[in-house]
Structures are given as C-alpha cells and as structure tokens.
Amino acid sequence: MVVETSPAAELFLIGRVLLGGVLAYLGVSNMLDAENKIEYARSTGIPFAGLAVPVSFVLLILGGLGILLGVYPMIASVGVIAFFAGVTPAMHAFWRIDDPDERSQEKTQFLVNFALLGSALIVLAIGSATWPYAP
Q: What is the DSSP string of 34-59?
C-alpha cells in the first residue's frame, strides 16, 4: 500500500502527527507523574510495578515519536500495541469496580485505550508501506 496522492498524503501526515503526538505526550505526562502511576499500578496488583511502569513510559514515548516521525513505524506500533494490550485490561478493569461513577470512568479509559490500540494496529498494518513525509 502506498499513500502518495494528495490529499491522502497530507491527511496521513496529519493523522500520524495527531496519533504519535498524543501517544508521546501521554508517555511524558505519565513519566512526570511516575510516583503516582507506580503506586496506582501496585494498587491494581501489577507485578513489578516499579519496573513495568517506567517501561510503559518508554513504549509510549518512543512508539509515539516513531509513528509521528515515520521512523521505524512497524517497531513503533508494536511497542504501542504491547503497551495497550497489557495496560488496558490490567489497569482499567472496570468490570471489577462496584462504585458506578468510578466504574464509568474506568470504562471510558478502557474504551479510549481500546481505540488507541486499534489505531496502532492500523499503523502496523500499513507500516511496511512507503510513508509520505517520512525519512
């Protein structure tokens, strides 16, 4: 698959910038709140949270930048897929929560993560194609 024709190339670039930028931003934002993120992960029963959470920052930041810049997009998308496939059911297990408001918030986070996982799968599917505006 080759995305070279205008306006498809420009739309693809905008989509890459939006998706990759948001992913990298989330990684940096989470990293800046690392202590709270690690504690929350521990409270949900994540094993080795002190190691797993920082690794998740790296997956989001490098994966996001790879998608944004079009640099090693298949590797970048696999990192993002690994992040969302692991984090989403483990950290946003809304089905285990009794409080309706908290359950609703976790369900929303679960669904947002699922949508981002789907986006990363799309990137992986077209990752071997020639990307316009990429090195």
A: HHHHHHHHHHTT-TTHHHHHHHHHHH
